[in-house]
Amino acid sequence: MSGVEPESLAEYILVEYRWVVVITALLPLSLLWKVWLAVRNYVVFTLNSAPKMHDKKVKNVQKQVKTWLSGDRSTKLCTSRPGWQSMSFRRGLYKKTFTNIDVNLVDVLEVDTKNMTVRCEPLVTMGQLSKTLQSFGCALAIVPELDQLTVGGLVMGTGVETSSHVYGLFQHICLEYELVLADGSVVTCSKDENPDLFYAVPWSYGTLGFLVSVVIKVIPAKKFVRLQYHPYTNLSDLAKRFREESLKKHPHQFIETLLFDKDSGVLMLGDMVDEVADDGLLNPIGNWYSKWFFTQAQRRLENYRRGRKDSPVEYIPLRHYYHRHTRSLFWELQDIVPFGNNIIFRYLFGWLMPPEVSLLKLTQPEAVSKLYERAHVIQDMLVPIETLEEAIQLFHKEFQVYPIWLCPFKVFNNPGQLKISSSGDWQMFVDIGVYGVPKAKGFETVSSTRRIEDFVVQKRGFQMLYADTYTTREEFRQMFDHTLYDKLRDTLPYCKDAFPEIYGKVNRSVRK
Fold first, then answer.
1. Distance CA 238, CA 267 (A)
2. Burial grade of 369 (CB within 10 A; 0-12, 13-18, 19 or more)
3. Measured between alpha carbons, how far is 121 from 138 in angstroms, rounded to an integer?
4. Which of 103, 216, 367, 438 allows an S-S link to 11, with CB 3.0 to 4.6 Å?
5. β-pairing, 426-436 with 404-412?
6. Kindly report the CA angle at 268 between 312 and 433, in degrees rounded to 5?
7. Residues of the chain where predicted confidence (pLDDT) is lower than 70
8. Sheet harboring 313-317: ordered strands across?
9. In the CATH hierarchy, which fold is given to the domain comprising 50-221+503-510?
10. How far apart are CA 298 and CA 334, in angstroms?
11. Residue 412 is inside which H or E element, if any?
12. Quick check: 138 and 221 in contact, CB under 8 A?
């Protein structure tokens, strides 16, 4: 992790040479795990055994909850999924003292091409789901790009992607939830059935019940994404174009920007197509030997600065585009495997990449954990799109971490925790994703993050729940509207006995 001074020789060795463990152990183990999951998922889905087993698995969840209910109820409830298996960088300390409920819900249950929906269990991953839907000529309307993100995490937390300026957040393409409540009962909810619960579930972080299945909207898929690259070396011009493209009445299907410094970045505009035309070249960015995607975008900017004119259009296979940041985990792998984008490494070992995030977390030494806490930022802040330029100036001042990921998205004027200031049907926001080692002078983890959080609250924005939250309970409740959530907590049987408030599971003091 460049830019960080280790506190000891041991820490230096653990950090600087962690790649040896990654290459010799984690990559082979990750491959075996991926092969096993692919075979298992194919067999289960092909034999159609998942729907038959679903009811049995749900009854097992009910049984465990009812066992807790019949006891003294002196502990709260949570899933037994270990913290190292989640995509969140931190592990929840509460799992050590809560009653852990086994929730082995990992299967795609049904693809309905007539109604254009898919029903799946909460531990289904984005990679698993996009692969399954591909064979039906379909895709999720929103596909958060990392393979290992789960449906449950994207519902109970949130998910955003480059089509979110059209469809909204992941919750906005979810049509129905099935939950096991604290009294052991099973309930389904939608806009028409139990609507209060339906709108309260997103962002609730597993504090209203156990999610056991989700029905999600799908759309027809095409073979490629026609992607246009637009480099900029002026932040004001880039921010203006970003807003204009996001707010168009008939926008491009995909919008994304990568900032490589405070003033420069690449705006990318994409649309699904079925054929590769003569105005661009085919670029299979998901092949194991391909350069990491963010470096390909960066090359466009560098060539633009040199006055070279590259073809601004590429055609990318659809699933390659959807998971374009997976192989490099955005750009986080460059700190763990610094030569991972080297051509020799890519051709020899690229087919093994990336290592499973869960294995990285499981084998992470304590010294690395402390170093990440002291000098590493992983944050997604969601602010109104008109504040983008001001926000970037502040992020540069407090963090100075690049690249920065920018993704526009709609928040609809629905009940729930996200309230908008617009009187219309929706308001456009931007997700500012910052992942890496801060280089800003005077950076301090808590105070710097607190100033960013204050800015987000002032602008009536939101902070993603997976990241470190240093807000107080009062500030957190100011950021998110708890009106409907509190109503459900008061009315659902045994809910307060079974689950803590959201803040009780996400604040920094309960995470390690």
1. 7
2. middle
3. 18
4. 367
5. antiparallel
6. 150
7. 1-18, 21, 46, 48-49, 83-91, 311, 358-359, 361-374, 512
8. 281-282, 313-317, 224-232, 265-273, 254-259, 404-412, 426-436, 377-384, 462-463
9. 3.30.465
10. 14
11. strand 404-412
12. yes
Residue range 376-481, CATH number: 3.30.70.120
Asked if residue 296 lies in contact with residue 444, where contact means CB atoms within 8 angstroms, the answer is no
Q: Is the dihedral of CA 40, 42, 47, 48 positive or negative?
A: positive
Tokens of 263: 């003033």
pTM of the prediction? 0.91
Average pLDDT, the chain: 90
- Six-digit token string for 156: 């109970």
Tell me how far apart the alpha carbons of residues 156 and 122 are, in angstroms, rounded to a whole number.
Answer: 10
Q: In whole angstroms, what is the distance from residue 256 CA to residue 197 CA? A: 32
Ordered by start, the domain boundaries in the chain are 50-221+503-510, 224-367, 376-481
* Token pair 């960015």: residue: 285
CB 353 within 8 A of CB 287: no
Helix, coil or strand: residue 385: helix
The amino acid at 209: G
* Residues ≥6 apart with Cβ < 8 Å to 79: 100, 101, 102, 103, 206, 210
Q: Say how far apart CA 120 and CA 140 lie, in whole Å.
A: 12
The C-alpha atoms of residue 174 and residue 103 are separated, in whole angstroms, by 20
Q: The tokens of 221 are what? A: 């898929």
Q: 3-class DSSP state for residue 299?
A: helix
> According to the model, what pLDDT value does residue 407 have?
98
Bridge partner list, 232: 265
- Do 50-221+503-510 and 376-481 agree at the fold level? no
How far apart, in whole angstroms, are the C-alpha atoms of residue 459 and residue 439? 25
Under 8 Å between Cβ of 307 and 274: no
Q: What DSSP string describes 169-231?
A: SGGGGEEEEEEE-TTS-EEEE-SSSSHHHHHHSTT-TTSS-EEEEEEEEEEE--SEEEEEEEE
Tokens 């995490």, residue located: 153
What's the distance, CA 262 to chain centroid?
Answer: 24
> pLDDT for 278-300, tens place per residue?
999 999 999 999 999 999 999 99
